[in-house]
Amino acid sequence: QVQLVESGGGLVQAGGSLRLSCAASGRRFSIYAMGWYRQAPGKQRELVATISSGGNTNYADSVNGRFTISRDNAKNMVFLQMNSLKPEDTAVYYCRFLAYSDWGQGTQVTVSS
Q1: Mind listing the pLDDT tens digit for each residue in 21-30?
Q2: What is the dihedral of CA 98, 42, 18, 72, to 10 degrees?
Q3: Mean pLDDT value across residues 17-44
Q4: Beta 77-82 vs 18-25: how paired, if at all?
Q5: What is the strand order of the sheet 3-7 is part of?
Q6: CB 7 within 8 A of CB 25
Q7: Which residues pair with 94 in a beta bridge?
Q8: Which residues does 57 contact at the CB level (< 8 Å), separation at least 6?
Q9: What is the DSSP letter of 90?
């Protein structure tokens, strides 16, 4: 069974930075594209960033230039470096295999103004 464990969230001030980590198991990690999603209270879950098996990346317009997704295939991990954080970035952040619908518990990111 797929297991996804996100970590690294917390409470930060606007303009600050956080680095989120995701440990994945249950799949042949290196051959799958991965994504980071987020869900704010009262809003639908949205796709934030993706990274292909070959390392190609894409970002939502709202985070482009501020967030960086990366992966370490040897460790079966995906990361999201978040800089210049804004209050509107406040949400629970999730990682996921793009090809599957399994979700972990997520990690809370709260950005104060």
Answers
A1: 999 998 889 9
A2: -10
A3: 95
A4: antiparallel
A5: 3-7, 18-25, 77-82, 67-72
A6: no
A7: 37
A8: 49, 50, 51, 68, 69
A9: -
